[in-house]
Amino acid sequence: MEKKVTPFAGQSSFAKEINSLVQTLSKNNASVLLIGERGTGKRLIAQHIHFSAAKNFGYFFEINCRSFTEAQVLGAFETVSKLIAYNQQITLFVCFADLLSQTLQSAFLELIKKSTEKGLCLKLISSVEKPLENAVSAGSFRSDLYCRLNSVVLNTVPLRQRKEDIIPIAETYLASFAKKSGYDFTSFSDGAKKAMLEHFWQGNVDELINAVQRAFIVGEPPVIGESDLALVSKTFGAGETIEKLTEDKSLKTAIDSFKREYLIKILEENNWNQTKTAQILGIQRTYVIRLMNELQIRR
């Protein structure tokens, strides 16, 4: 049975790139590692990759390592293993893969090896909030498992860094909720749109979806107003760069914000040439790439 997945809406270069990559990734067995903040659409991307190739991968199996106990994860791996034994085609989506214990990492690796022996009938998609290199270097994440998971690495971009996607995403879910609920909401007021564009979106797309759902409960059709969304926005003045980027007041966040802005500035000055940027900063090119991944910098 064909499954319809909510489209990865948006007008940003990130949204367009994802929609293009999904078609490519759905046609091969390359493992995919999704890196990014919670709520940036990693699950939706995984679903798109799977259902775009539904004829080849019949089952979409999700394991959430944050909410599952170790016993539950082991049980899930055993279930997938049994399905593989019967030559079933499966997409296995492992959320918060960095939280896997050493025991679970070993079990996961054995599952992958078994799939390989059966002819790669297992499509692997994993997600983490931060790059795994540090965990691998520290020995808390197995390097052989990491190599199996990261054939293709996709960094998901926070919603606040792609504001052109906010209204299209909100309108997509407005139409979806209206169809499911029967409430005749048709649009957002200008004030509601302005509030959404100015909001920080700490919870990214998940927070946006929740705001639209709330508006359906408290609002009056046909237009969703600013107050229906219950968003708290702030106007930023000169010299408030760090505060504009984040509501987190920790020193690490402030330093990361500065590093991100400065690295983007140098990259732009050198037409995004990583080698020249590394020379100017006095660091290795590999470290520039690592910083771009950690700070979620995309051209």
End-to-end CA span: 38 Å
- Which consecutive residue ranges, at least 5 long each, have pLDDT under 50? 234-246
Tell me, what's the shape?
Answer: globular
Number of strands: 7
- Helix/strand order, N-terminal first: HEHEHEHEHHEHEHHEHHHHH
Please render the helix and strand layout as text.
Layout: H1 13-25, E1 32-35, H2 42-51, E2 59-64, H3 70-85, E3 90-95, H4 102-117, E4 122-128, H5 133-138, H6 143-149, E5 152-155, H7 166-181, E6 187-188, H8 190-198, H9 204-218, E7 223-224, H10 226-229, H11 241-245, H12 251-269, H13 274-281, H14 285-294
Parallel strand pairs: 1-4, 1-5, 2-3, 3-4, 6-7
Describe the overall structure:
There is one protein chain. By secondary structure, the chain is of the alpha/beta class. Helix content is 52%, strand content 10%. It is built from 14 helices and seven strands. The strands form two sheets. The protein has a five-stranded parallel sheet, sandwiched between helices. It has a two-stranded parallel ribbon with strand order 6-7. Helix 7 packs across helix 9. The longest helix has 19 residues. It starts with 12 loop residues before the first helix and ends in a 5-residue tail after the last helix. About 4% of the residues have low confidence.
Q: Can you summarize this structure?
A:
By secondary structure, this protein is an alpha/beta fold. It is built from 14 helices and seven strands.
